[in-house]
Amino acid sequence: MKKIVQTYSLEILLSALIINYLYNLIDKSSNLIFFYFKNIHFLLSTILSIYFYFILSSYIKSSLKLDSRILSISYFFSSFFIIELIFFPIINQTGFSSLYLIIMISWLLIILLNSKSIKIFIHIVMTYLTLTFFNNYYFEKFKSINGYIEWSNDVPSQWFELARLISDEGLFHAYTNNLIKGQGLFINNIQSIIFKLNFPIQDFQFIRVNSIIILFFSYLLFLDLKITKNRKNTITLIFSVFVLNSGWLSYLFIDSLMLEGLASLFFGIYIYKSGDFMKKNINFNSLLFYFLFSSVLFSKEFVSTLSLVYFIYLLFIKKNLNVIPAFAVYGLEKFYRKLYVSTEIESTYSDGRSVGDLFVDLINLRNLDFNVLINILVEFTRDRIALVILIYFIFINLFSVKSQNSSIEITIFLLVLLNIVFIFVLYISWWKNIEVQSSYRYFLNCLHLIMISIALKAESLNAN
Cβ distance 236 to 459 under 8 Å? Predict the structure, then answer.
Protein backbone atom coordinates (compact mmCIF):
# COMPACT_ATOMS: atom_id res chain seq x y z
CA MET A 1 0.00 0.00 0.00
CA LYS A 2 2.85 2.38 0.91
CA LYS A 3 4.53 1.64 -2.43
CA ILE A 4 1.32 2.40 -4.32
CA VAL A 5 0.92 5.74 -2.54
CA GLN A 6 4.55 6.64 -3.26
CA THR A 7 4.28 5.69 -6.91
CA TYR A 8 0.89 7.17 -7.71
CA SER A 9 0.51 10.00 -5.17
CA LEU A 10 0.46 12.62 -7.93
CA GLU A 11 -2.19 10.71 -9.88
CA ILE A 12 -4.30 10.29 -6.72
CA LEU A 13 -4.16 14.06 -6.18
CA LEU A 14 -5.14 14.65 -9.82
CA SER A 15 -8.09 12.27 -9.56
CA ALA A 16 -9.48 14.13 -6.55
CA LEU A 17 -9.14 17.46 -8.34
CA ILE A 18 -10.80 16.19 -11.51
CA ILE A 19 -13.79 14.85 -9.56
CA ASN A 20 -14.23 18.26 -7.93
CA TYR A 21 -13.76 20.01 -11.29
CA LEU A 22 -16.37 17.87 -13.06
CA TYR A 23 -18.81 18.59 -10.24
CA ASN A 24 -18.26 22.33 -10.73
CA LEU A 25 -18.84 22.06 -14.47
CA ILE A 26 -22.55 22.16 -13.69
CA ASP A 27 -22.11 25.93 -13.74
CA LYS A 28 -21.02 26.08 -17.38
CA SER A 29 -21.61 29.79 -17.82
CA SER A 30 -18.64 30.80 -15.68
CA ASN A 31 -16.24 28.21 -17.09
CA LEU A 32 -13.50 29.62 -19.28
CA ILE A 33 -13.28 26.54 -21.51
CA PHE A 34 -16.92 26.83 -22.55
CA PHE A 35 -16.43 30.50 -23.34
CA TYR A 36 -13.67 29.73 -25.84
CA PHE A 37 -15.59 26.95 -27.54
CA LYS A 38 -18.61 29.22 -27.90
CA ASN A 39 -16.49 32.05 -29.34
CA ILE A 40 -14.50 30.46 -32.13
CA HIS A 41 -12.63 33.64 -33.09
CA PHE A 42 -11.16 33.77 -29.56
CA LEU A 43 -10.08 30.15 -29.90
CA LEU A 44 -8.47 30.71 -33.31
CA SER A 45 -6.62 33.78 -32.09
CA THR A 46 -5.32 31.81 -29.10
CA ILE A 47 -4.08 29.03 -31.40
CA LEU A 48 -2.28 31.56 -33.62
CA SER A 49 -0.73 33.21 -30.54
CA ILE A 50 0.43 29.88 -29.16
CA TYR A 51 2.04 28.98 -32.48
CA PHE A 52 3.78 32.35 -32.72
CA TYR A 53 5.22 32.15 -29.20
CA PHE A 54 6.20 28.54 -29.74
CA ILE A 55 8.30 29.26 -32.83
CA LEU A 56 9.64 32.49 -31.28
CA SER A 57 10.82 30.58 -28.20
CA SER A 58 12.31 27.87 -30.41
CA TYR A 59 14.36 30.35 -32.44
CA ILE A 60 15.51 32.32 -29.38
CA LYS A 61 16.43 29.04 -27.71
CA SER A 62 18.54 28.07 -30.71
CA SER A 63 20.12 31.51 -31.06
CA LEU A 64 21.16 31.82 -27.41
CA LYS A 65 21.80 28.08 -26.93
CA LEU A 66 19.50 27.99 -23.90
CA ASP A 67 18.05 24.49 -24.18
CA SER A 68 14.78 25.83 -22.73
CA ARG A 69 11.76 27.30 -24.49
CA ILE A 70 10.26 28.83 -21.36
CA LEU A 71 13.54 30.51 -20.40
CA SER A 72 13.68 31.91 -23.94
CA ILE A 73 10.22 33.43 -23.42
CA SER A 74 11.35 34.84 -20.06
CA TYR A 75 14.44 36.44 -21.60
CA PHE A 76 12.28 37.93 -24.33
CA PHE A 77 9.83 39.68 -21.97
CA SER A 78 12.41 40.61 -19.32
CA SER A 79 14.58 42.33 -21.92
CA PHE A 80 11.89 44.90 -22.71
CA PHE A 81 11.62 45.97 -19.08
CA ILE A 82 15.33 45.91 -18.18
CA ILE A 83 16.56 47.72 -21.30
CA GLU A 84 13.93 50.43 -21.03
CA LEU A 85 14.74 50.83 -17.32
CA ILE A 86 18.43 51.33 -18.11
CA PHE A 87 17.66 54.05 -20.65
CA PHE A 88 15.37 56.09 -18.39
CA PRO A 89 17.70 59.15 -18.41
CA ILE A 90 17.68 59.27 -22.23
CA ILE A 91 13.91 58.82 -22.33
CA ASN A 92 13.53 61.59 -19.76
CA GLN A 93 15.66 63.98 -21.81
CA THR A 94 14.30 63.17 -25.26
CA GLY A 95 10.77 61.93 -24.53
CA PHE A 96 11.52 58.96 -26.82
CA SER A 97 9.12 56.12 -25.93
CA SER A 98 9.49 53.67 -28.83
CA LEU A 99 12.21 51.43 -27.41
CA TYR A 100 9.69 48.61 -27.77
CA LEU A 101 10.16 48.64 -31.56
CA ILE A 102 13.96 48.76 -31.30
CA ILE A 103 14.02 45.81 -28.88
CA MET A 104 11.63 43.79 -31.06
CA ILE A 105 13.72 44.43 -34.17
CA SER A 106 16.86 43.55 -32.22
CA TRP A 107 15.41 40.15 -31.30
CA LEU A 108 14.57 39.51 -34.96
CA LEU A 109 18.12 40.44 -35.96
CA ILE A 110 19.58 38.15 -33.29
CA ILE A 111 17.51 35.28 -34.66
CA LEU A 112 18.44 36.11 -38.26
CA LEU A 113 22.17 36.54 -37.64
CA ASN A 114 22.47 33.38 -35.53
CA SER A 115 20.34 31.17 -37.75
CA LYS A 116 21.80 32.63 -40.98
CA SER A 117 18.58 31.48 -42.59
CA ILE A 118 16.25 33.78 -44.44
CA LYS A 119 13.62 31.01 -44.34
CA ILE A 120 13.48 31.16 -40.52
CA PHE A 121 13.21 34.95 -40.64
CA ILE A 122 10.37 34.79 -43.18
CA HIS A 123 8.66 32.05 -41.16
CA ILE A 124 8.50 34.09 -37.97
CA VAL A 125 7.55 37.31 -39.77
CA MET A 126 4.76 35.66 -41.77
CA THR A 127 3.44 33.92 -38.66
CA TYR A 128 3.38 37.22 -36.82
CA LEU A 129 1.69 39.07 -39.70
CA THR A 130 -0.98 36.35 -39.90
CA LEU A 131 -1.64 36.69 -36.16
CA THR A 132 -1.88 40.48 -36.22
CA PHE A 133 -4.03 40.56 -39.37
CA PHE A 134 -6.51 38.12 -37.84
CA ASN A 135 -6.57 39.94 -34.49
CA ASN A 136 -7.08 43.37 -35.99
CA TYR A 137 -9.76 42.08 -38.36
CA TYR A 138 -11.78 40.81 -35.38
CA PHE A 139 -10.70 43.58 -32.99
CA GLU A 140 -14.23 44.91 -32.41
CA LYS A 141 -15.36 41.45 -31.32
CA PHE A 142 -12.27 40.88 -29.19
CA LYS A 143 -12.64 44.08 -27.22
CA SER A 144 -16.26 43.33 -26.38
CA ILE A 145 -16.51 41.79 -22.91
CA ASN A 146 -20.27 41.30 -22.72
CA GLY A 147 -21.08 38.85 -19.94
CA TYR A 148 -17.58 39.15 -18.50
CA ILE A 149 -17.46 39.21 -14.69
CA GLU A 150 -15.10 41.80 -13.19
CA TRP A 151 -14.30 40.25 -9.83
CA SER A 152 -12.11 43.06 -8.51
CA ASN A 153 -12.79 46.80 -8.40
CA ASP A 154 -9.02 47.44 -8.34
CA VAL A 155 -8.53 46.15 -11.88
CA PRO A 156 -10.32 48.92 -13.86
CA SER A 157 -9.03 51.71 -11.63
CA GLN A 158 -5.44 50.51 -11.09
CA TRP A 159 -4.12 47.55 -13.10
CA PHE A 160 -5.83 48.55 -16.35
CA GLU A 161 -4.66 52.15 -16.05
CA LEU A 162 -1.07 51.14 -15.31
CA ALA A 163 -0.95 48.80 -18.33
CA ARG A 164 -2.56 51.50 -20.49
CA LEU A 165 0.00 54.10 -19.38
CA ILE A 166 2.86 51.79 -20.29
CA SER A 167 1.35 50.80 -23.63
CA ASP A 168 0.27 54.27 -24.76
CA GLU A 169 2.86 56.55 -23.14
CA GLY A 170 5.83 54.34 -22.25
CA LEU A 171 7.30 52.70 -19.17
CA PHE A 172 9.05 55.86 -17.96
CA HIS A 173 5.79 57.82 -17.88
CA ALA A 174 4.08 55.05 -15.88
CA TYR A 175 7.11 54.85 -13.56
CA THR A 176 7.02 58.56 -12.75
CA ASN A 177 3.21 58.67 -12.54
CA ASN A 178 2.60 55.36 -10.80
CA LEU A 179 -1.00 54.96 -9.64
CA ILE A 180 0.05 52.59 -6.84
CA LYS A 181 2.71 53.68 -4.37
CA GLY A 182 5.98 51.94 -5.16
CA GLN A 183 4.36 49.18 -7.23
CA GLY A 184 6.86 47.40 -9.49
CA LEU A 185 5.89 47.58 -13.17
CA PHE A 186 7.54 44.48 -14.64
CA ILE A 187 4.33 42.43 -14.80
CA ASN A 188 2.29 45.37 -16.07
CA ASN A 189 4.94 45.83 -18.76
CA ILE A 190 4.52 42.21 -19.87
CA GLN A 191 0.77 42.75 -20.22
CA SER A 192 1.47 45.82 -22.34
CA ILE A 193 3.98 43.96 -24.55
CA ILE A 194 1.57 41.09 -25.15
CA PHE A 195 -1.11 43.58 -26.23
CA LYS A 196 1.28 45.45 -28.52
CA LEU A 197 2.36 42.21 -30.16
CA ASN A 198 -1.20 41.06 -30.76
CA PHE A 199 -2.72 44.46 -31.64
CA PRO A 200 0.12 46.75 -32.77
CA ILE A 201 -2.08 49.49 -34.27
CA GLN A 202 -4.70 49.67 -31.50
CA ASP A 203 -4.90 51.64 -28.27
CA PHE A 204 -4.64 49.51 -25.15
CA GLN A 205 -7.70 47.47 -24.20
CA PHE A 206 -8.28 44.48 -21.99
CA ILE A 207 -8.52 41.58 -24.46
CA ARG A 208 -9.22 38.12 -23.09
CA VAL A 209 -7.09 36.34 -25.72
CA ASN A 210 -4.05 38.19 -24.35
CA SER A 211 -4.40 36.73 -20.86
CA ILE A 212 -5.11 33.09 -21.75
CA ILE A 213 -1.60 32.83 -23.19
CA ILE A 214 -0.38 32.67 -19.58
CA LEU A 215 -1.79 29.15 -19.43
CA PHE A 216 0.36 28.16 -22.41
CA PHE A 217 3.49 29.64 -20.83
CA SER A 218 2.76 27.63 -17.69
CA TYR A 219 2.60 24.47 -19.80
CA LEU A 220 6.00 25.27 -21.30
CA LEU A 221 7.39 25.58 -17.77
CA PHE A 222 6.06 22.19 -16.69
CA LEU A 223 7.32 20.57 -19.89
CA ASP A 224 10.77 21.92 -19.03
CA LEU A 225 10.92 20.05 -15.71
CA LYS A 226 13.45 17.23 -15.37
CA ILE A 227 10.86 14.53 -14.80
CA THR A 228 9.20 11.83 -16.87
CA LYS A 229 6.75 12.70 -19.62
CA ASN A 230 3.82 11.18 -17.70
CA ARG A 231 4.52 13.34 -14.66
CA LYS A 232 4.87 16.44 -16.83
CA ASN A 233 1.41 15.73 -18.21
CA THR A 234 0.04 15.04 -14.74
CA ILE A 235 1.32 18.27 -13.15
CA THR A 236 0.07 20.22 -16.18
CA LEU A 237 -3.40 18.76 -15.67
CA ILE A 238 -3.30 19.44 -11.92
CA PHE A 239 -2.42 23.09 -12.53
CA SER A 240 -5.08 23.43 -15.24
CA VAL A 241 -7.82 21.83 -13.18
CA PHE A 242 -6.93 23.98 -10.19
CA VAL A 243 -6.97 27.37 -11.93
CA LEU A 244 -10.01 26.51 -14.06
CA ASN A 245 -11.90 25.09 -11.09
CA SER A 246 -13.67 28.35 -10.32
CA GLY A 247 -14.45 31.63 -12.01
CA TRP A 248 -12.47 33.53 -9.37
CA LEU A 249 -9.26 31.51 -9.80
CA SER A 250 -9.51 31.70 -13.59
CA TYR A 251 -9.96 35.45 -13.29
CA LEU A 252 -7.09 35.79 -10.83
CA PHE A 253 -4.55 33.81 -12.84
CA ILE A 254 -5.38 33.88 -16.54
CA ASP A 255 -8.48 35.91 -17.38
CA SER A 256 -7.84 39.45 -16.14
CA LEU A 257 -5.17 42.11 -15.68
CA MET A 258 -4.48 40.88 -12.15
CA LEU A 259 -0.77 40.28 -11.59
CA GLU A 260 -0.85 36.97 -9.70
CA GLY A 261 -0.63 34.64 -12.70
CA LEU A 262 2.34 36.32 -14.40
CA ALA A 263 4.13 37.11 -11.13
CA SER A 264 3.89 33.49 -10.00
CA LEU A 265 4.91 32.24 -13.46
CA PHE A 266 8.07 34.31 -13.91
CA PHE A 267 9.12 33.83 -10.30
CA GLY A 268 8.73 30.08 -10.76
CA ILE A 269 10.64 30.06 -14.05
CA TYR A 270 13.66 31.99 -12.81
CA ILE A 271 13.91 30.22 -9.44
CA TYR A 272 13.71 26.77 -11.02
CA LYS A 273 16.13 27.57 -13.86
CA SER A 274 18.59 29.14 -11.41
CA GLY A 275 19.52 25.56 -10.55
CA ASP A 276 21.34 25.49 -13.91
CA PHE A 277 23.33 28.64 -13.11
CA MET A 278 24.85 27.86 -9.73
CA LYS A 279 28.53 27.78 -10.77
CA LYS A 280 30.71 30.26 -8.90
CA ASN A 281 32.95 30.96 -11.89
CA ILE A 282 31.90 34.02 -13.84
CA ASN A 283 30.61 33.28 -17.32
CA PHE A 284 28.48 35.15 -19.83
CA ASN A 285 25.45 32.83 -19.74
CA SER A 286 25.13 33.09 -15.96
CA LEU A 287 25.66 36.85 -15.97
CA LEU A 288 22.92 37.22 -18.60
CA PHE A 289 20.59 34.95 -16.64
CA TYR A 290 20.80 36.91 -13.38
CA PHE A 291 20.78 40.23 -15.24
CA LEU A 292 17.37 39.37 -16.72
CA PHE A 293 16.22 37.56 -13.55
CA SER A 294 16.51 40.96 -11.81
CA SER A 295 13.30 42.03 -13.59
CA VAL A 296 11.36 39.94 -11.05
CA LEU A 297 12.58 42.33 -8.34
CA PHE A 298 10.12 44.81 -9.82
CA SER A 299 7.05 42.58 -9.98
CA LYS A 300 4.96 42.56 -6.79
CA GLU A 301 5.16 41.59 -3.15
CA PHE A 302 6.19 39.19 -1.84
CA VAL A 303 7.80 37.88 -4.99
CA SER A 304 10.07 40.95 -5.16
CA THR A 305 11.31 40.58 -1.58
CA LEU A 306 11.80 36.82 -1.91
CA SER A 307 13.86 37.36 -5.08
CA LEU A 308 16.07 39.89 -3.29
CA VAL A 309 16.57 37.51 -0.34
CA TYR A 310 17.48 34.76 -2.83
CA PHE A 311 20.05 36.99 -4.57
CA ILE A 312 21.62 37.88 -1.21
CA TYR A 313 21.82 34.17 -0.37
CA LEU A 314 23.46 33.34 -3.70
CA LEU A 315 26.05 36.11 -3.40
CA PHE A 316 27.05 35.88 0.26
CA ILE A 317 26.37 32.21 1.07
CA LYS A 318 26.93 30.49 -2.27
CA LYS A 319 29.60 33.01 -3.37
CA ASN A 320 28.04 33.16 -6.82
CA LEU A 321 29.49 36.33 -8.36
CA ASN A 322 27.31 35.97 -11.44
CA VAL A 323 24.43 37.46 -9.44
CA ILE A 324 26.16 40.87 -9.25
CA PRO A 325 24.34 42.22 -12.37
CA ALA A 326 21.04 41.72 -10.52
CA PHE A 327 22.26 43.96 -7.69
CA ALA A 328 23.48 46.48 -10.26
CA VAL A 329 20.01 46.70 -11.80
CA TYR A 330 18.43 46.87 -8.33
CA GLY A 331 20.75 49.70 -7.32
CA LEU A 332 20.15 51.54 -10.57
CA GLU A 333 16.38 51.44 -10.02
CA LYS A 334 16.81 52.76 -6.47
CA PHE A 335 18.90 55.62 -7.88
CA TYR A 336 16.21 56.40 -10.47
CA ARG A 337 13.58 56.29 -7.74
CA LYS A 338 15.41 59.00 -5.81
CA LEU A 339 15.93 60.97 -9.02
CA TYR A 340 12.50 60.76 -10.66
CA VAL A 341 9.92 59.62 -8.11
CA SER A 342 8.36 61.71 -5.39
CA THR A 343 8.83 60.39 -1.84
CA GLU A 344 5.04 60.53 -1.53
CA ILE A 345 4.74 57.48 -3.78
CA GLU A 346 7.90 55.68 -2.71
CA SER A 347 6.53 52.66 -0.85
CA THR A 348 3.65 50.31 -1.44
CA TYR A 349 3.35 48.49 1.85
CA SER A 350 5.34 50.18 4.61
CA ASP A 351 3.35 53.43 4.77
CA GLY A 352 6.50 55.29 5.81
CA ARG A 353 7.51 52.82 8.52
CA SER A 354 10.95 51.17 8.55
CA VAL A 355 11.87 47.50 8.53
CA GLY A 356 13.95 48.21 11.62
CA ASP A 357 10.84 49.29 13.52
CA LEU A 358 9.09 46.13 12.43
CA PHE A 359 12.00 43.98 13.61
CA VAL A 360 11.99 45.67 17.04
CA ASP A 361 8.23 45.16 17.33
CA LEU A 362 8.63 41.45 16.55
CA ILE A 363 11.46 40.95 19.04
CA ASN A 364 9.53 42.70 21.81
CA LEU A 365 6.14 41.29 20.75
CA ARG A 366 4.90 44.87 20.60
CA ASN A 367 2.03 46.30 18.55
CA LEU A 368 1.15 42.84 17.24
CA ASP A 369 -2.26 41.29 16.79
CA PHE A 370 -1.99 37.49 16.70
CA ASN A 371 -5.75 37.13 16.31
CA VAL A 372 -5.26 38.07 12.67
CA LEU A 373 -3.47 34.74 12.17
CA ILE A 374 -6.69 32.89 12.89
CA ASN A 375 -8.52 34.97 10.28
CA ILE A 376 -5.80 34.24 7.72
CA LEU A 377 -5.94 30.51 8.42
CA VAL A 378 -9.73 30.58 8.03
CA GLU A 379 -9.27 32.39 4.71
CA PHE A 380 -6.82 29.71 3.55
CA THR A 381 -9.35 26.97 4.29
CA ARG A 382 -12.13 28.52 2.20
CA ASP A 383 -10.67 26.97 -0.96
CA ARG A 384 -10.54 23.28 -0.12
CA ILE A 385 -8.66 22.39 -3.30
CA ALA A 386 -5.91 24.91 -2.51
CA LEU A 387 -5.77 23.55 1.04
CA VAL A 388 -5.35 19.99 -0.23
CA ILE A 389 -2.54 21.08 -2.56
CA LEU A 390 -0.79 22.98 0.24
CA ILE A 391 -1.02 20.02 2.63
CA TYR A 392 0.27 17.67 -0.08
CA PHE A 393 3.12 20.10 -0.86
CA ILE A 394 4.20 20.29 2.79
CA PHE A 395 3.82 16.55 3.37
CA ILE A 396 5.76 15.50 0.29
CA ASN A 397 8.60 17.91 1.08
CA LEU A 398 8.86 16.78 4.70
CA PHE A 399 9.12 13.21 3.43
CA SER A 400 12.79 14.06 2.87
CA VAL A 401 13.54 12.32 -0.40
CA LYS A 402 16.82 13.13 -2.10
CA SER A 403 17.09 13.41 -5.87
CA GLN A 404 19.22 14.96 -8.59
CA ASN A 405 17.18 18.14 -8.08
CA SER A 406 17.42 18.10 -4.26
CA SER A 407 19.18 21.47 -3.99
CA ILE A 408 16.58 23.40 -5.96
CA GLU A 409 13.79 21.41 -4.27
CA ILE A 410 14.98 22.61 -0.85
CA THR A 411 15.28 26.17 -2.17
CA ILE A 412 11.72 26.14 -3.49
CA PHE A 413 10.33 24.69 -0.26
CA LEU A 414 12.05 27.31 1.87
CA LEU A 415 10.97 30.17 -0.39
CA VAL A 416 7.32 29.08 -0.23
CA LEU A 417 7.50 28.81 3.56
CA LEU A 418 9.22 32.19 3.75
CA ASN A 419 6.43 33.68 1.65
CA ILE A 420 3.89 32.40 4.19
CA VAL A 421 5.99 33.81 7.05
CA PHE A 422 6.06 37.20 5.32
CA ILE A 423 2.28 37.13 4.99
CA PHE A 424 1.81 36.32 8.68
CA VAL A 425 4.36 38.92 9.86
CA LEU A 426 2.93 41.77 7.77
CA TYR A 427 -0.65 41.06 8.77
CA ILE A 428 -0.03 40.83 12.51
CA SER A 429 1.98 44.07 12.45
CA TRP A 430 1.52 46.71 9.73
CA TRP A 431 -1.64 45.32 8.15
CA LYS A 432 -3.72 44.61 11.25
CA ASN A 433 -6.60 46.70 9.92
CA ILE A 434 -6.42 45.52 6.31
CA GLU A 435 -8.85 42.91 4.98
CA VAL A 436 -7.36 39.41 5.14
CA GLN A 437 -8.85 38.20 1.85
CA SER A 438 -5.74 39.40 0.01
CA SER A 439 -3.56 37.07 2.10
CA TYR A 440 -4.79 34.15 -0.02
CA ARG A 441 -3.68 35.99 -3.17
CA TYR A 442 -0.21 36.56 -1.74
CA PHE A 443 0.02 32.86 -1.02
CA LEU A 444 -0.88 32.04 -4.62
CA ASN A 445 2.04 34.14 -5.85
CA CYS A 446 4.08 30.98 -5.29
CA LEU A 447 1.64 28.62 -7.03
CA HIS A 448 4.01 27.74 -9.90
CA LEU A 449 6.80 27.04 -7.42
CA ILE A 450 4.47 24.79 -5.44
CA MET A 451 3.52 22.89 -8.60
CA ILE A 452 7.19 22.51 -9.59
CA SER A 453 8.06 21.23 -6.12
CA ILE A 454 5.20 18.74 -6.10
CA ALA A 455 6.22 17.37 -9.50
CA LEU A 456 9.92 17.03 -8.59
CA LYS A 457 9.19 15.41 -5.22
CA ALA A 458 6.65 13.01 -6.72
CA GLU A 459 9.30 11.96 -9.22
CA SER A 460 11.73 11.35 -6.35
CA LEU A 461 9.16 9.26 -4.46
CA ASN A 462 8.62 7.10 -7.53
CA ALA A 463 12.38 6.65 -8.04
CA ASN A 464 12.77 5.43 -4.48
Answer: no
